[in-house]
Amino acid sequence: MQLIKPDINIDFIGKRKAAVALSALLILVGLVSMLFRGGPEFGIDFAGGTLVQIQFQDQTSPTQIKDALKGLELGAIVVQQFGDEPNEYLIRAQQSSSELKGLRHTISQELETAYGEGKVEVRRAEMVGPQVGKDLRQKGLMAILYAMIGILFYITWRFEFRFAVGAIIALVHDVLVTLGVFSLLGKEIDLPIIAAFLAIIGYSLNDTIIVYDRIRENTGKHAKEGFPAIVNRSINETLSRTIMTSGTTLMVVLALFIFGGGVIHNFAFALLIGVLVGTYSSVFVASPLLIFWEEHQADRSQKAATKGKTA
Q1: CA nearest to 45, candidates 100, 80, 85, 96
Q2: Which whole number is the average pLDDT over 192-218?
Q3: What is the DSSP string of 206-246?
Q4: Of 71, 184, 196, 263, which is most buried with the most CB atoms under 10 A?
């Protein structure tokens, strides 16, 4: 099935400098946002603490919930609405308790005292110690790092080192942009989001390798056209497949985002951003980087030849 004519010739490569500027701007905005926030907003998985999900029968507000819990020694707490239900809230406390069952019961009793018996339902209670959170954070970051290193070796073996560098930079670009969007929107980074980042890396890499394979194939067929023209031809030839794959993936992820509920909302959101950014980077980041590499190598060779003649 072809959504786009095979002989289409959009000048993607001609827009590579504008694309680099846009990518640099997106990453810079995200990094500045994280700088002002003191780093990414880590969730309970990584920061440690206590999380309780509560459903109220009657209308209430975060301020009223905080007032009802003043008698408990939970430290600084954050109360926010959760999911699609109007009276469902998440309570996050920096302090954690080794008696999770007791804490669940204590919070339930305290809220029932304020709201009435049977009008409060504790749906979920989680506790992560600060040391465990730190350990999970380190392991999550190492998982992403190991994935990048494995990809670098695989693409170097499968193609060439310049292809591997281009793919890794594109993947780092995808993760940084997604992380920046999370920082700008104040969304938390937890274990499911790390899983989403790894899924984004896999999805983006798959699309990039398809384009790279066509570039290698066309390099032998159309060597006389010049490398920039070969890269642009390859992107155009795989454009129909890219749009079909990205479009169908986006439909599924969008369905998860809209109908999946609050538990996987951030996970689906990360995938949504990642699929869009990953498709963009395959066309405007990974492939043009090969041209920048080629131009750099040509300049070095020319300077070396000029220097040799002068000597």
Answers
A1: 96
A2: 87
A3: HHHHHHHHHHHHHHHHSGGG-HHHHHHHHHHHTHHHHHHHH
A4: 196
37: helix, strand or coil? helix
Distance CA 232, CA 250 (A): 25
Mean pLDDT of all residues in 91-106: 63
Decide: helix, strand or coil at residue 104.
Answer: helix
In whole angstroms, how far apart are CA 265 and each of 56, 250, 309? 21, 15, 63
pLDDT at 177: 92
57 vs 273, higher pLDDT? 273
Kindly report which listed range (72-81, 207-216, 269-278, 281-290) carries the lowest average pLDDT score.
72-81
pTM given for the model: 0.77
Q: Token match 């110690």: residue?
A: 129
Determine contact, residues 49/94, Cβ cutoff 8 Å.
yes
What's the one-letter identity of residue 206? N
Q: Where do the domains of the chain lie, and which CATH numbers do they carry?
A: 13-41+132-310 (1.20.1640.10), 49-128 (3.30.70.3400)
Candidates 117, 162, 169; CA nearest to 148 is 169
pLDDT digits (tens, 9 = 90+) for 146-187: 888 888 888 888 888 888 888 888 988 998 999 999 989 888
- What ranges make up the beta strands (E) of the chain? 49-56, 77-81, 88-93, 120-128
Q: With 0-12 CB in 10 A as exposed, 13-18 as middle and 19+ as buried, what is 152?
A: middle
Euclidean distance between CA atoms 159 and 212, whole angstroms = 8
The DSSP bridge pattern shows strands 77-81 and 49-56 to be: unpaired
**Torsion-angle region of residue 190: left (phi > 0), alpha (psi -120 to 50) or beta?**
beta
223 alpha carbon, distance to own chain's centre:
37
- Whose structure tokens read 């950014």? 277
